[in-house]
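note to self: dont lose this again. the chain is below, predicted strucutre after it. 365 aa total, dont forget to put it in the shared folder this time
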Amino acid sequence: MNILSMADSTLQIIHYLASRYCAGRRTGTGGWKRAQEYIIQQMQDLGILPFYGESYLQPLPHLPENIEGANILGYIPGKGRLKNRYIMIEAHYDHLGTDDDELGYYPGADDNAAAVGIILRAAGHFHADPPQADRRSILVACFDAEEPPFFNSPHMGVERFCEANPEVLNAIDLAVFLDLMGHGLGTGTHEKIMDSFFLIGGEKCGIGPVLNQLETSVEGIYPRRMGIHAVPPSGNYIAFKNRERPFIFATSGRNHFYHTLFDSAEKLDYPKINRLVLYFSYLLRDLSTAPRKYFTYIPKGAADAESLKSLKEMFRVMDPETPNLEKILNYIEKAEKICETNGNLPLPEQSKLLHLVKLIEQYVS
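---
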């Protein structure tokens, strides 16, 4: 029997995790526990093995206020000389829980049920048809304690994972983090905007050739490579960046439902989500067999030319009435010439990339 047919569809995964039954998945709550059990069941149905012997769980003891927390980790064994190396694909599964005024619960469909569904199904596709060559093992991780009050603290699930598993951390050639992946960029915008997502961090490890090769691998999805300094820091990738471990971060950015009671499953873009499942299954295939040279951390690596290319492609298809559009495109062309001469932008110009990304978020909200 096809293992993919045994597990729930991506849509079913997202709807369950964003349902009233999971009540916002706040770490340590009953809804969080139900989400955890459900994710483990999906891993089992997809043939993803428990990473810790017979257990999928890494408990997170001593969280503030004695809250119970746990990371979920499974893996797909590799083959041959690369089987003891890993590619990790990750999406945090916790969210904000219920509203303080008891008006409802935070569904967290985009943040981050959609990404959990994408990584589970992408791993399932990989497991159903892995490369026959020597290949790395795939570590499938759903980290806990990413949301407040744990965010940007040593209590985050990803931080605890890194501290508790130094040998595993050193065996991870690349970590792929997904966050806020379920929505289209705007409604009624051009498909090359709506079906875009950002890929950040490739410049820090030399994985660019693999990402470039996959740019057109799935029709109707547009991966936009961006330098890390062009996007506000957020998510679990920060723990890997601080440890100078190779990573890439995939996101569609924040929309106006972010961290609200309205981040519900019916608002997501499921055709885009299904294409993302295919994209990340292809990415896992290529990363699992890629040459070792692509996975060396490059602290000063920058990607201003790639960032400008991505921004230009998106601004070019915006509504002609978009404020300051001509001025923005003129600036991008000027900045591209600077990159052609100097390789990258000087620091004051790099800050303008962050401003342009924020403009895109405003225009498509």
